[in-house]
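Researcher: I'm preparing a figure for a lab meeting and need a structural model of a single chain. I don't have an experimental structure, so a prediction will have to do for now. The sequence is pasted below. Please return the structure as tokens so I can convert it later.
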Amino acid sequence: MSSRLVPLFIARGAAALLPALAVVAFAAPSASAASFGCDASAVRATIATGPPIEPVTANHGPADCRDASASLAALPTGLPVPATASLISAATTLTGEGLATNAQTAQATASIADVNVPALPIALPPGVVPTIPGLPDLTPIIQSLIQAPLLHLSVASAQVNGSCANGGAVLTGSSNVAGLTVLGHDLPINQTVSQLINVFGTGTISGSQIYAALPPALQNPGIATILNALPPITIPPQLATVTITPNEQTNSGGVMTQRALHVNITLGGQQLLDAVFGEAQVSAAGQPCLTPTTAANQAALACTKRRLVLIDVIPDGRRVRLLGAADKKYIGKRVSIVFTGNGKVVARPKVAKNGSFRATAPMPAASIRDTNRARYFARIGHERSLRLKLMRRMIVSHLSSRKGRVTIAGRVIEPLANPVRSITVRRRLSCKRWQVVKHITPSRNGSFRVVLKAPKGKLASVYRLTTRVRKVTTNPKTYPTFTLPRAVAIFG
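Model: Understood. Here is the structure written out token by token.
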């Protein structure tokens, strides 16, 4: 490799170039795919005009899936509404915690059993309830005789599982519903139903029925005679709209939601009950199934608005190696690599399934290769990458990982500082934060090789190396130089 390489920096502007170059490639945090998300809710309901309730949930709110559980037994005062149940539970589970996310599985489950929602005090039409001298208001008694419980549900349960296969998320869901009665009517639980049901279970009520329902203190022969003489009381129908949706599943944007049963009951435009029994959800929206190679390529695009990035341009004998990454929408498309010295396309690689592209091109003529004109950029349609200079003072020629170790090798181009300055190795923590992970000293000819411990739980990590060099051999003054940020796929 030529020792006549022109410095990448201009002496007084060296510091100003650092932030700009940080945007050129892999300005992303150390890449670890987000974990699966998971959430479970045993019941979410609104009864009449009461406030919404969701008393038993698991991992409700956190973005990442984790082990969590809740049950009816954990509630200090039971259900905060006039309803009962013998079992209410919700649970989420993450298997493989501590492993790479693409080796984890997530599960969410929710169950509820023996649910009873009593009849609500629905107002009877005016004039239906007779006024009997010597007796209190008969409305509650008549209502108790003609109204069926609002709802009974034997069991409802839902479950969603998430795992990874072939670099993609696999989400599966199932649910079970049994024994549904609404306003005294048994309803099918294998299909969506919307129908009108009379709120009152009978069309007429006799005086003898009213007498039998009176408190013992009010039961005497005189009252019995009065009530038995009453003509049958006609109860006008009050039709409620009942809609049930069993075994409902949605899968959109990498999020699967499984609902065992959704029940909605309205009367005269007013809601009596809106409830979801058994809801489980697992999310793969954070792309937990990324392969390390795909994660490394996506890191190139994470902190830039550009959807096409030329990662590095590496002189290699008579050839130039070109590395880049593109948005997934460009997978399978050809990239034009343009040499700015003459404006010609020197390579046309195809974007691989993992988002990467690579190519080689002829080394430019000696008369131009060391100048600022020797730059390259990538182009797809109207999308352009930044222009990278060919000859730089610090180059990474090898970057790999194996068995939890990262190896970085390259060369600092002469003239070096005297004495030779150490190289600082930094790892990217976020788009604006770097962490120093090691200091190394290059050899006398500037070559270096360092082996680092890979960050735990990461699919990819981004590194940048910096040191100081002389501009010319006749001047001892040194200036900073650095590699382009580079990402490496982490293989365990």
